[in-house]
Specification:
The protein has 23 helices and 6 strands. The protein starts with a helix and ends with a strand.
Length: 569
């Protein structure tokens, strides 16, 4: 039984698929809150030394009149974060009680509670000499995400999509909740690491699961739109801190409610494609019959009797390995460029989100807008990736990221220019999100059939490295975003330039063998734009009266398959 053919007959985008798709889109919301929520639970508030001679730790406030003679002023902050004046032998808390020409380090701090009343940083005093520990939890989170992508993929393929999704849901809720009860930074970091392993499946497994219920005509659309729900979850991560100011409550809000999706075990079935792939045709048939009933269509009984006879003739690509491809200078350069672009896009995508709370103006609004800007970027890519081509959209996205972040870095930190800083940062995030949403597709199209999955996996692993070091880059400025933004901008512009060295894939027959991959893109101009090329071809044909030799140009409206090749859409 061919599941794809059955889905086409029973409506591959009917009421049942739409309901399942909506349910699948809800779990990525919590994948997002768990991922970016640490921007608030680990928010770095302004802080100063506790002056025991002048205040009680239980009711100390960040601003106080005695700070003029007890704490040195800081060029970047109101008061020095790590130094205080040494006390004299006079005692008390007057302007003669401290040496204003001698400082000492402090061991206790007072935090500004105007944004967050308590955070992981203030709870465990991750400041001054311990500040180097701040980015550790974020980096380990992305290490866990990389590990989770491997584990959840194995579980989903071996034991089923629903089993993998349930493990992700339970693990995320459990370890996230335990993290809120952590009594030490080490325990919190360990719980967040375990949570990161599990949370990947909330998006990755749900993505595979929902698209396997739909027909090929809407699969690309579904693959892009599910990202919008992830962006909604990111934005919600900035809405909750407006009302909830302590990190333990936020940690519970970000993770524990995901446990409600355990109900999916009783509401939705296993993927029929996975059931067929694991030799469970009876169960697959039951699921497909249920879909047909919900969609009000007739189940095609005749397809049950048809055996799909697979050709036993070995294709030329079967014996080719990834190492064989890397022996070619053309494919080796292509792989290096893709790895660098993946590294940059994850570095910038997560990095901009991490520094967005340090921009001037309302920190909540800045963060929320930085996340919501992803939604129009996804819609933009959905409508332009085919007519404008991969190179123009992806290269333009990287260029927009580079220009936006660099200009954001050089704009003076002036209250009158806060709107400009926010706007430029949003442009940078728009570009990063656009590039992120299209790199999976573009990378897959550049590799031959037998090496496509390995090629995407190799490139995406480089992306994980970018995410791992993003917290350290974002932390370089220690409250000043100039250096991190310049790094994001320069790497973005470099990636834009590297895109010009790659071939255009829109409307092209994708390579089947390594030899075809090497020749792929030869003869193309530096930046072919499919819609313009197609229009030019139609104009030439019209002028010739359709006589004479035909010129081979990219075809954006051809058949999906031609002589055994898969055509990029």
């Amino acid at each position: 039984m061919d599941v794809e053919e059955v889905l086409e007959r029973i409506n591959g985008w009917g009421r049942y698929q739409k309901a399942v798709y909506l349910l699948a889109c809800l779990t990525p919301i919590f994948a997002a809150t768990v991922t970016v929520g640490y921007s608030w639970t680990g928010y770095i508030s302004d802080h100063r030394c506790l002056v025991e001679e002048c205040e009680d730790p239980s009711n100390a406030t960040y601003d106080a009149p005695f700070l003029r003679w007890s704490t040195p002023a800081d060029a970047d902050h109101t008061w020095s974060r790590c130094q205080r004046y040494r006390p004299t032998s006079v005692g008390g808390c007057t302007n003669t009680s401290f040496f204003t020409n001698q400082t000492e380090s402090c061991s206790r701090w007072v935090y500004d509670k105007s944004v967050m009343e308590s955070t992981v940083v203030s709870e465990f005093d991750l400041v001054c000499d311990s500040a180097k520990l701040q980015p550790l939890v974020s980096s380990l989170f992305f290490v866990g995400t990389a590990l989770g992508s491997v584990i959840s993929g194995f579980v989903a393929d071996r034991y089923g999509r629903m089993i993998a999704l349930m493990c992700s849901i339970v693990g995320t809720g459990l370890f996230g909740g335990l993290g809120a009860l952590a009594s030490s930074y080490g325990t919190f970091t360990a719980m967040r690491f375990l949570s990161s392993i599990c949370q990947y499946g909330l998006f990755g497994v749900a993505f595979v699961w929902c698209t396997e219920f739909t027909s090929i005509e809407v699969r690309a659309f579904c693959g892009i739109i599910i990202n919008i729900f992830f962006a909604i979850g990111e934005a919600l991560s900035g809405v909750f801190p407006i009302f909830v100011k302590d990190w333990t409550s936020l940690q519970l809000i970000y993770s524990v409610p995901v446990l409600i999706f355990v109900s999916y075990w009783f509401l939705v079935p296993e993927s029929p494609r996975w059931l067929m792939a694991t030799n469970q045709p009876k169960k697959a048939e039951q699921v497909l019959r249920k879909i047909a009933k919900w969609n009000g269509t007739t189940f095609p009984e005749e397809l049950l009797k048809r055996n799909n006879v697979e050709s036993t003739e070995e294709s030329p690509s079967t014996t080719e390995s990834f190492l064989d491809a890397m022996k070619s200078p053309v494919l080796r350069l292509r792989a290096i460029i893709l790895c660098l672009q993946w590294f940059v896009v994850t570095l910038v995508y997560y990095g901009i989100g991490m520094v967005s709370t340090e921009f001037g103006g309302d920190v909540y609004v800045n963060f929320i807008l930085t996340m919501l800007i992803e939604i129009p970027s996804y819609l933009f890519c959905a409508f332009t990736i085919n007519p404008l081509g991969r190179k123009l959209v992806i290269g333009g996205a990287f260029a927009l990221t580079g220009l936006g972040t660099i200009l954001c870095a050089v704009v003076p930190d002036d209250a009158d220019l806060e709107w400009l800083i926010t706007t430029l940062a949003l442009l940078g995030k728009f570009g990063a999100a656009s590039a992120f949403s299209t790199m999976y597709l573009y990378t897959a199209e550049l590799y031959p059939d037998a090496l496509r999955a390995k090629g995407v996996g190799f490139a995406s692993t480089s992306g994980r490295l970018g995410a791992i070091i993003a917290p350290f880059i974002a932390d370089l400025g220690q409250g000043d975003t100039t250096l991190p933004l310049c790094i994001f901008g320069v790497t973005g512009l470099v990636s834009a330039g590297l895109t010009m060295l790659l071939p255009e894939t829109s409307g092209q027959d994708l390579p089947v063998t390594i030899a075809e991959a090497i020749d792929f893109g030869k003869g193309q101009s530096l930046l072919p734009i499919p819609c313009l090329v197609a229009r030019r071809q139609r104009k030439r044909e019209h002028l010739r009266g359709f006589d004479g030799p035909q010129i081979q140009l990219p075809d954006t409206e051809g058949n999906a398959e031609d002589q055994g090749h898969t055509k990029a859409v």
